[in-house]
Amino acid sequence: MSLLTVEGVWKNYHHHSVLRGIDLEVAPHEVVCLIGASGSGKSTLLRCVNLLETIDDGAIYLDGSDITEVRTDPDDVRRRIGMVFQSYNLFPHMTVLDNVTLAPRKVHKTRPDQAEAEARELLARFGLADKADEYPDRLSGGQQQRVAIVRSLATQPRLLLLDEVTSALDPTLVTEVLAVIRELKDAGMTMIIATHEMGFARDIADTVCFLEGGVLLEHGSPEQIFTTPAHPRTRGFLQRVLDADRL
Amino acid sequence: MTEGEAAPPADSDAPEAAAPAALAQWTKSDRQIRREADLRRRARRSTSIATASTIVVATAVVVAVTASPGWPRVQEAFFNPSQFAAAFPDVWRGFLLNVKIFLIAELLILIIGLVVALVRTLRSPVFFPLRAAAVFYTDVFRGIPTILLIYLIGFGIPALELQGAPNDPVTLGIIALVLSYGAYVAEVFRSGIESVHPSQRAAARSLALSHGQTMRYVVVPQAVRRVIPPLLNDFVSLQKDTALVSVLGPLEALRQASIHASSTFNYAPYLCAALLFIALTVPMARLTDHLAARTARRQMAGGHL
Ligand SMILES: Nc1ncnc2c1ncn2[C@@H]1O[C@H](COP(=O)(O)OP(=O)(O)OP(=O)(O)O)[C@@H](O)[C@H]1O
Ligand SMILES: [Mg+2]
């Protein structure tokens, strides 16, 4: 059974449809990459899955239950989903350790000493052991983004949503964040990743989805999407990306 | 590599050992020595200009005032040392009451202000009446002049003859000050809360923190840090406004001063009260400046959003 099912999801902003009937299935341990031009609706789709936005039509199922039903508790859904943002969004007034342990302590009611031990272990695993007591503004962008990933992992989510987590970073820092994501894939984490890094998508994705104008035009294996895209618009998009890279 | 940047020592395995060596090789060039001497000279000149102009202005003011035809009378009325000394103990005792009023009011204002600001962030329709009440409160009490509110509450509440209603003028004065300043401070807190970027809220909610937890652990701590300078500014003006409570009759500094003034027909007691208020507000104003400057520096340093 799939872990997440998105069924005919529509999202409108001021009479303008940003998502137009999206269908998507994500199996456990699957890594899905969302690609598409700026404004195609990738972030909006992720925000809808995390219930940060209310959808205007359709349904989203997590573990078989409809999370878009009126009676669902959004906090209960978010307890099972982690999300990492393009701009890190670490809490600037807390140390790295407090950033990571906040949700385990306050939401999941983990004992503080246990939450701290687990947080330190996770930080160490991602090469951040010596940063636990720093404040976010003392870290590089790559380190901040890795902390943000650790923060979302600390509550042991079933599903991780990553929204262009490398696009605010220096090219030299991109690799360290991508390495973390690769490690998560190897550990079996289910992820939906919105990204502009085509090489990375090709490398890590089990399924690549191409969005345009709020429509999921095409999805398939990375080989299929990147070498023999069926839709002429997918071809056009990939060509533009290639041209931009050559500049 | 740009010119002047030292090449990394290829054969050294301790990079920090190279730094002191590079420093030791640097001897100040003649150009730099001349530049520093120039800077020192200029600094000395600015200081002497500032000193000279202060002396000139101060002398001009003193001469103009003391040369005015009414000066002997003013000097007698306001700067009479013996009257000043005679009034000081009473005015000082009264001033301690001002400080007490200020401290109690300040604490209550902070609580009321924060609660009202938080109520205004509630989005659920269940809380509509609360939210409407908060909006009504800030609109109404920011609109009424503080002195008028002190009259209304100070004379209005006792006139109602309600069972258990306070009728002690100090308490009534504190209530009026709290209601008036609470409305201002609520708006200060609200602007602070709104200045925290929505992405912080999104991050907190995505971690499954509830609205209340998001406010308590993420938004309010950041908001409070940002509004400390404007809050202190409001408190400087609250310190002065404690004197308004004198219209209700408690023996605070202004009241004591006017009792002395009316029995001796001398205004030195007023000067005495004014100096005490200045002594309280000036340190607070400097602290505000200092904190505001520090906040500005922090924000310049980048980091936070
Ligand atoms: N809060 C909002 N109000 C109105 N329009 C919005 C809002 N959020 C997003 N949009 C619009 O929705 C469309 C899709 O935005 P979205 O952020 O999902 O795109 P994206 O694919 O993530 O783009 P990018 O690659 O630039 O991040 C855009 O046209 C955007 O202008
Ligand atoms: Mg986006």
TrEMBL record, chain A:
GO terms for cellular component: plasma membrane. It comes from the Bacteria. GO terms for molecular function: ABC-type amino acid transporter activity; ATP binding; ATP hydrolysis activity. It is a peripheral membrane protein. Gene3D superfamilies: P-loop containing nucleotide triphosphate hydrolases (3.40.50.300). Coiled coil: none annotated. Transmembrane segments: none annotated. SMART domains: AAA. It is found in: Cell membrane. Its main location: membrane. Belongs to the ABC transporter superfamily. This is Peptide ABC transporter ATP-binding protein. It comes from Planotetraspora silvatica.
From TrEMBL, chain B:
Its main location: membrane. GO terms for biological process: amino acid transport. GO terms for cellular component: ATP-binding cassette (ABC) transporter complex. It is found in: Cell membrane. PROSITE patterns: ABC_TM1 (PS50928). Keywords: Amino-acid transport, Cell membrane, Membrane, Transmembrane, Transmembrane helix, Transport. Residues 95-288 form the ABC transmembrane type-1 domain. The chain crosses the membrane at residues 49-71, 91-119, 140-160, 172-189, 265-285. One of its GO terms (molecular function) is transmembrane transporter activity. The keyword Magnesium does not apply. Residues 1-24 have a biased composition (Low complexity). NCBIfam families: HEQRo_perm_3TM (TIGR01726). PANTHER family: GLUTAMINE TRANSPORT SYSTEM PERMEASE PROTEIN GLNP (PTHR30614:SF20), MEMBRANE COMPONENT OF AMINO ACID ABC TRANSPORTER (PTHR30614). Belongs to the binding-protein-dependent transport system permease family. HisMQ subfamily. This is ABC transporter permease.
